[in-house]
Fold each of these.
Amino acid sequence: MAEITGNSSNIDPRSGFCKANSTFYSKRKPIPLPSNESLDVTTFISSRAHHGKIAFIDAATGRRLTFSDVWRAVDAVSTSLFTDFGIRKGHVILLLSPNSIYFPIVCLAIMSLGAIITTTNPLNTAREIAKQISDSKPVLAFTIPELIPKLADSNLPIVLLSSDLVPVGSTSNKLRIVTSIEEMMRKESSQAGSRVRERVFQDDTATLLYSSGTTGASKGVVSSHRNLIAMVQTVSNRFKLDEGNQTFICTVPMFHIYGLVAFATGLIASGSTVVILSKFEMGEMLTAIQKFSATYLPLVPPILVALVNNAEIIRKKYDLRSLHSVLSGGAPLSKEVIEGFSEKYPGVTILQGYGLTESTGIGASTDSAEESRRYGTAGLLSPNMEAKIVDPDSGEALSCNRTGELWLKGPSIMKGYFFNEEATASTLDSDGWLRTGDLCYIDEDGFIFVVDRLKELIKYKGYQVPPAELEALLLTHPEISDAAVIPYPDKDVGQFPMAYVARKSGSTLSESGVMEFIAKQVAPYKRIRRVAFVSSIPKNPSGKILRKDLIKLAVSKI
């Protein structure tokens, strides 16, 4: 029987619900967290016993980094940042890169100084990246040569994650290439063991990841070292990684909370090997599983669906016998998908998870095949996590099997939004409860089910697309008088953005014209892929778009 973390005699051991305060408590065994207030997440990870030898493998080149290599590199990079570039506690540093064996090294080095890492999607446009730079105000950037043009107007000194193509020390169009990470790692300063650093506390900020908002304005999520330490403990405990060497395939993006928590910090804490692919490509992923005898495969639902639909071809071409678990996040899996996968890959267990950037990727999970067969569930509450189901209209906290907004509270919940008191106050209450924006219910056995989203975000292949951002761009078109963007269901990608557009009188603007206008301004995952023209956009008396009416209209024509 799983353990209840609450201490009230009013707690139902089956559901975890406490009648006295209308709170659901985790049924998972509580995980102890370090009590030392002066502790950074890098020191915490490096102090854990490592049972493995190889930390990271570059799938494309075969280059391997042992755990000793990793910690030497982290120490060398942090020393260079401190000594050569004056990086201090509280400074923000931007990391713009696809997945790389250098990604976790940079993150760990920055956080060891008490400096703050902010990541961004390499698919984002220069305009989108510039907005994040303006908000977060980094003092230095790490990137690869191919992405340098996206920082052309930033004035930031740049450290290259590769010395190819662009000579270190070169300057053009305001760019300053100051060094490369290879150069940093070669120095291995003699000061490494004796330098004096500023003391870092668990409550200090470690990461500043950007989360899409319904308003269209992306918000910086401030997470502390305590948040990340709690995440590391949860990840390591969930997969029982201390019990033997495991190999993970990393195709999910490291800049995203899913990739960052699982690979850049979480998994190296227990000696697992992470095989890193710079981007997702189905054939390369399957080849890597076979070549490196991978045991765990994290992915998003559309990829899992593709594995089911192409199972016959895949099993003939690739040997996947080493694989024993796939980890799915982003959206609950349907009964058909779970049963189809289990039938075609009988030796592989599906484990699901639910989390947000604001909860450091932690919230709920299914940790066994039996739990995943509770079809449609996001899982049981993670260890040390509490939940409420709150009626969005009345504010009443509800009991089992009643639908309301999911609120979460626990050691991995963010500190707030970066210099955005209004957004923080509307998302975090004074007692530390995070309003997730997801409509859910919790059944009599403590399993969470996501019913809908209060937040109007579109989920494309696991990426979040705020419709308000696309609507604001559409309204800048000289031939568009009004517009609304909705999620359009798609079996391959989950959802994609569809636009309803009201043209100005006399306009002959075409569907392709609308799509091309947006495509030039946003990352590929945000592109509008379907357009319908209407005489006017339906709105309520206060002027809010009636998105649900448009969704019904779109779905009725499928």
Note: The chain is about 25% helix and 25% strand.
Amino acid sequence: MMQMRTHTCGELRLADAGKSVKIVGWMENVREVGSNFAFVVLRDFYGTTQVVIESEEMMAIIRDLNKESTISVEGVVRERASKNPKLPTGDIEVVPSKIEVLGRCRYNSLPFEINRSREADETQRLKYRYLDLRNPAVKNNIVLRCQVVAALRAAMTEHGFLEITTPILTASSPEGARDYLVPARKHPGKFYALPQAPQQFKQLLMTSGFDRYFQIAPCFRDEDARGDRSPGEFYQLDMEMAFATQEDVFAVLEDVLPPIFAKFGTYDVASAAPFRRIPYNTALETYGSDKPDLRIDLTCKNVTHLFENSEFEPLRGQTVKMVDISDCALTRKQVEKLLSDCEVQSGSKAYWFKVDEKGELAGGIAKFVTGLRSQLEQVLTLAPNTLVVVAAGAAATKSAGVLIKTFGAACAGHMDQERYEFCWIVDFPMYEIGDESGELEFCHNPFSMPSGGLEVLLKAERGEIDPLTITADQYDLVCNGVELSSGAVRNHDPEIMVKAFELVRLGEEDVKKKFPAMYNAFCYGAPPHAGIAPGVDRMVMLLAGESSIREIIPFPMNKNAQDVMMGAPSTVEQKQLDELHIQITAQEEE
């Protein structure tokens, strides 16, 4: 044991009664019973121990301290008269002969009560994160993260992968998000970029002859925050395999992840291999989302053809999708509240009707669909006590997906929450029409191999097929409605790469300029290779049962990408700017 202590605060048991011990930690609480009698709760990383003050000398020391001061206690362990079965150390207490102050808390009041810090305002929690992390519930999430990362490393090593670190300072490349740029002092006017992902480096490792690579990789993207995405930086289990197919990648993760989820998760049930494979278009048509939560048994049905001439204007001539929910006991008020919540999420108004106990259509838009009952029964189950929610318009698919998730969770019997359900979303479109440009753009990842290779690209170039019908050997890993990762079989052939970029108006010289290392490396003979990169932060968030990713990151930024604890981003001295040849032309007022 360390010289500063003989035992931790979570270690002593009844068998230790009579021993002389030395424990250290934070003074969590003090309860004075008399002038020279008090109970002190001492907390360290491992747990808590009760210390009983029974002398004027010891009381004088304790009375002079604020809570959260760190102290050393030397004394004798004895059996407690009033035991606490809820605590591992609840059978014993320590009677001190010596108390030493190690680190005095100089504030009479704290920003929040440590053990209830999760109830505090988030800004306060982030500003005083070092206090927030003293809360065992918060600390345990970080411990879980460490355990999961260690398990991932061990599993990947067992599968023959080498852990190789890739550069943090690199070149800017167009990979879908904004770069964080770092000025190069020795090269005025030029910048490094922090990597959005180790994408190019791991592919270059494959061309270098390494067969299986992985790392717990830091990634940097200047993106807005979401519940499942932290701004600034995040970590992923980055992996790549040479001479590999999509199924090879699937086999590795289907072997690595379920045991880790079953062992460390809030729920101890996880999908067994093989995970379900769902084509992208099928996922949208069936679940209204490319991130379906398969714990929910609801699906959407396309009934557009029935409403071409509907009397109800919001449905007339629109795309119409319906979700039938059997044995739904929600009241009208509850249904309309949930529909309102869905409208906020999807930006599209939704409607409803139900089948009452007598089997009659009632409520909501029932009068506009009663005449279509026989046709609807061919695609919907309209048994008594069935609720049907309706999405319509250009955003019908997205709206239907939101309805499924919302009502699946709200209606009893339609969601098996206590499990982890994985699936692969496959056959993503290679191209899409850009919202801003109105022109053909890459849909997912420009480094993916198009299904059909060069031949299908040439057909698109000749106008024989629509490029929007080209699929890519891309895949997403989804768990409980959360996208854990995107991956792909890579485009390792320079000729196919150039042709893929030509369809989005970029020629060979553009490819050479934007991706010089990859293009040149592939010209020296590259193996077929494939990979994926599950997000560590999202994985741990699911395992911990948290809804916000900030709960499992030791020092997270706030939603505005600010570190309120450290004061970042911050201004710098003019001397530093001069060294970097940077001039600030406009500065935001604080």
Note: The longest strand covers residues 20-34.
Amino acid sequence: MKNIKRFFDDYEIIQYGNFYKVNLKNKITFDNKKSKLILVTSINPTPTGEGKTTTLIGLNDCFNYYGYKSIAALRQPSMGPFFGIKGGATGSGNCELINANKINCGFTGDFFAIEAANNLIMSIIENEIYQNSSLEIDESKILWNRCIDMNDRSLRKIEYSLSNKLSTNFSSKFNITAASYLMASFCLAKSKLDFKNKLLNTIVAFNKKNNPVYVKDLDIIDSIMMILDDALNPNLAFSKYNNPVLIHGGPFANIAHGCNTVIATELALSVADYTFTESGFGIDLGAEKFLNIKTRELNKVPNLVVIAVTIKSLKYHGGTLVQDLNKENLYSLETGFSNLLKNIDSIKSFGLNYVVVINKFNDDTQKEIDKLLQLCKDKKIPCELSTMWQDGPKANKHLIEFINNNLSDKNVIKYTYKLSDSIIDKAKLVAKTIYGADGVNFSEQAINKLKENQQFIQDYYICFAKTFSSLSDDAKKLNVPKGFTISINDVEFNHSARFVILITTQIFLMPGLPKIPNAKRIRYEFR
């Protein structure tokens, strides 16, 4: 097996086609105290990409290349975005995973298992209604949704009837699997047993007396666990340089919390001296949720936050059009630098160490590189240039010393909000501290839902569902918007993951396809 015994000598490794599963055998606790945890994130995403995954894979390759025991923990790609607009999520250039297309297209079947288990819950709920069971579920108060791992805007709202025996027409919707409630709790579970207990006590509906109906009331937990038995074991893949990468779970960051599973991260921390992991999209969506949600569940604070940035992304935030990003523009580079500064302030608000890694593009000019390095030096920002995409680990040894020199041993974090705060106060704190907003506006519908469910959501996390392109809720407001408020039109409750989803403008829990989907560009080769 490829470079496995060095890390997983104490675990049973099961081969799944081109990949492997690490059998945890219901392991509940891991020894993660010795490993360094490094979170890789980025500024607000732009059309050309910031190279967050590329940077993470490259850093893991660098550390292993020079003899350090390092491992990466990534999210699993969703097929919807792969065939839609985003494309793959497996790195590129010299920082790519082996068998990338298979990883992007089904992998070991985890998403299908989550989809099946999620939809089983919904079908059982509806069967209880059809059979007029003693649960007396109110069909107008079902909280669960079906899911599918594909972008399909026609499934955002569906109307249907269970049978001719029932006069009631049902109104429901599909979420994409990565945004399903089950995916979120799957990724926050500490073990199979913990996942089972979380799910048993998940509210999925209310009955006609307005009392909650839990998954345990449906009497299907063993069937769910049977479906998810293999899926709860982390997947093991490898980079081009034969270094291990755990890929497990894949919730979206602009809809859910955007982190790979706690189980895989715990496993990585227990088998390596360095663990590189990432959060979805930029600091305002992904890193905020990683730090406010996942670290509480993981009980481990990052020793360092790596902020991936490109010269192109800063120029884009500085006003340069996409078609002109390959042209030298020092003015827009300096203007867009403000977005990096604001995102750094957000990391500082958590009291964590950080560094900036410039992911070099081949057409970046030397003047632009020197300008960005000088801007960082003037602000006393630790910054280094990475050519890992072009050159691989051999030419980037300097990054190892750079990372090691900035690691912190402190296990302290300043959370943006307390779990005891109200949902509205939590939203205000995140909006003001992380987004730089003046405040938050809740619609009447959202406020009414919060009041009706107040007894169930006292200590829940919050999970903003907003655009990833801007710090605001308006995708067109780039760089560092001023004088704006965040509008929350609706809320949803993920009782399984214990967070309230705050839905802002122009956000759908089921993405649509662009005019020319990526599916039209993919070419399959017979082998």
Note: The longest strand covers residues 485-494.
